[in-house]
Amino acid sequence: MVQGIGIIGRARSGKDTVAARLVAQHGFQRMALADPLKDMALDINPVIGAEDGTAGFSPLYLADAVELLGWEAVKDCYPEARRFLQRLGTEGVRKAVGADHWVEALMQRRAARRVVADDLRPVVVPDVRFPNEARRLTAAGFQLWYVDRPGVVGGGHASERLGPTMAGHVLLNDSTIQALHRQVDVLIKGEPRNA
Predict the structure, then answer these.
(1) Which DSSP category does 141 fall into?
(2) Which pLDDT tens digit goes with each residue over 94-130?
(3) Whether the model pTM is above 0.90
(4) In whole angstroms, what is the distance from residue 123 CA to residue 7 CA?
(5) The CATH number of the domain where 179 resides is what?
(6) Residue 154 has what DSSP assignment?
(7) pLDDT digits (tens, 9 = 90+) for 19-61
(8) How far apart are CA 154 and CA 171, in angstroms?
(9) Residue numbers of the domain that contains 102
(10) Domain of life of the organism in this record (predicted)?
(11) CB-based contact 28:22 (threshold 8 Å)
């Protein structure tokens, strides 16, 4: 069985949907590169918008929005939240601490789970965004999958530029969630595509 799968794709392409299928139906554990980044962002708790109340406008803080709506809805509804995560993760940590920080932190978390919890399940990483992350995961025995959703345009940030060239498989998300799930199942089971 594969050690893990790293998923590449633009924002809103279906990466998390693919990861959720791998967890629910194929016994993978989800470990995102951005998990510690999101924890850091919640600790900083920036203002991401304003709420119109009876006393006028009041600041909307990231932690409050995430608690109320969840991460995906917050990133969709409040562009400042996505921008903050991108800037903190890339211009902040990757440039100041090191380009390999997030992927090495993930590999350390994975190793700790294997030793401490005796958890040998394969890992799905739903947020591979840079070539160095893709190379490091490949070196650790991971497959790379690219999720292509026609019509989804990236935001232009450096974290949204990694294309399908490094991926061993491309999943076309141009139909239903069930159709995307079938593609995942076929790749995992190694069945011929026309089965």
Answers:
(1) T
(2) 999 999 999 999 999 999 888 877 888 999 999 999 9
(3) no
(4) 11
(5) 3.40.50.300
(6) -
(7) 999 999 999 999 999 999 999 999 999 999 988 777 778 899 9
(8) 17
(9) 4-189
(10) Bacteria
(11) yes
